[in-house]
Write a structure and sequence with these properties.
alpha+beta, 324 residues, globular, Elongation Factor Tu (Ef-tu), domain 3, single chain, Alpha-Beta Plaits, six-stranded mixed sheet, 17 strands, Gyrase A, domain 2, 3 domains
Length: 324
């Protein structure tokens, strides 16, 4: 196995036309939701459209709390008319399951945790690598492909986790990672770890609800509003989303910070007051540190901050991406 700077360099190079990279998403968990009311129930709990998904359709959605805060993020796959799979990021499957179960009243719906191995393939050549490894073509936007991984059910669908995007492969089987990783490596993908994936996410300014979102953070503040439907009916947190849309502005936004070292906390401060919160932090191949953060708009590009106890600067748009 190569050292960490080399793995991060490979992940960053993938967006510039280099070999795609693959990483295991060990913190992902999966929930199966079934029953005659599964679609309407999920439609009323998740922020994106669920009832409008056809069988074979998929989208990415947020779970909001009653204050409209982006507390979790999941890929929603409609496997059958009355059967859905939710692939939840960042170790939050248990939280999502508890929230959904708490809101079941008279709904004819069943929820259960299912084993899953999730691998992401990112970079300009991700589709070709997945096609070579699985024997299927990359799915069209808004749909997923069914795969067979060692006799177990698996799915491929588009997810952007780097500047150039790529696909996730989910096998409904905890041991599926080795088979998926082996096939992807044979197809030319570079196998990297979670820290290299973090570097690609920070370089591409790709937020996640489990990192940049959370309690106290609206989707619009963390760059996650693309996973919210503003035209569907009532759902958890919908009143707050309607209010934000009507006002047309929030006080904070997603920014990139250049840091003097590795931070030890999450507060971002400027002029002696807290102005934001750190999300994903990554060390780049040249030894520098960068992070995504939700920061108040009055702190402009080039502004000096203290983030997690270390000096930092808000990076301007032209300087966001770091060289590999």
């Amino acid at each position: 196995m190569t050292d960490q700077p080399d793995r991060s360099a490979a992940a960053l190079a993938a967006s510039a036309g280099g070999a795609p990279f693959a990483a295991s998403l060990v913190a992902c968990g999966a929930l199966e939701v079934t029953g005659p009311d599964a679609a309407s129930f999920l439609h009323g709990q998740l922020a994106n459209d669920v009832s409008g998904l056809a069988v074979g359709g998929t989208n990415r959605s947020l779970l909001l709390n009653h204050k409209g805060h982006a507390v979790a993020e999941a890929q929603v796959l409609r496997l059958e008319r009355e059967r859905f799979l939710l692939v939840v990021d960042d170790g939050l499957a248990g939280h999502v399951a508890e929230s959904l179960e708490r809101h079941v009243v008279f709904d004819d719906v069943a929820l259960r945790r299912v084993p899953a191995a999730v691998v992401t393939v990112q970079g300009t050549g991700a589709g070709a690598a997945v096609a070579a490894a699985t024997g299927t073509q990359a799915p069209e936007a808004g749909s997923f492909d069914r795969l067979d991984v060692g006799g177990r059910e698996a799915f491929a669908y588009a997810v952007r986790r780097s500047a150039s995007g790529g696909l996730d492969l989910t096998a409904v089987d905890e041991t599926g990672y080795e088979r998926l990783a082996g096939a992807l490596a044979a197809a030319g993908a570079v196998i990297v770890d979670a820290t290299a994936l973090d570097a690609a996410r920070v370089a591409g300014t790709v937020p996640a609800a489990g990192r940049e979102g959370g309690e106290g953070v609206l989707p619009q503040e963390a760059g996650l509003e693309g996973f919210v439907s503003f035209r569907k009916g009532c759902y958890l947190g919908q009143e707050i989303m309607a209010r934000v849309e009507a006002r047309g502005a929030v006080k904070r936004g997603l920014r990139t910070l250049a840091l003097a070292g590795e931070p030890e906390g999450r507060d971002v401060e400027a002029a002696g007051k807290v102005v934001g919160r750190l999300g994903t932090v990554a060390r780049f191949p040249d030894g520098s540190w960068r992070a995504l953060a939700v920061v108040r708009h009055e702190v402009g590009d080039g502004g000096a901050v203290s983030a997690g106890g270390v000096a930092g600067t808000v990076v301007g748009e032209a300087a966001r991406r770091m060289p590999a």
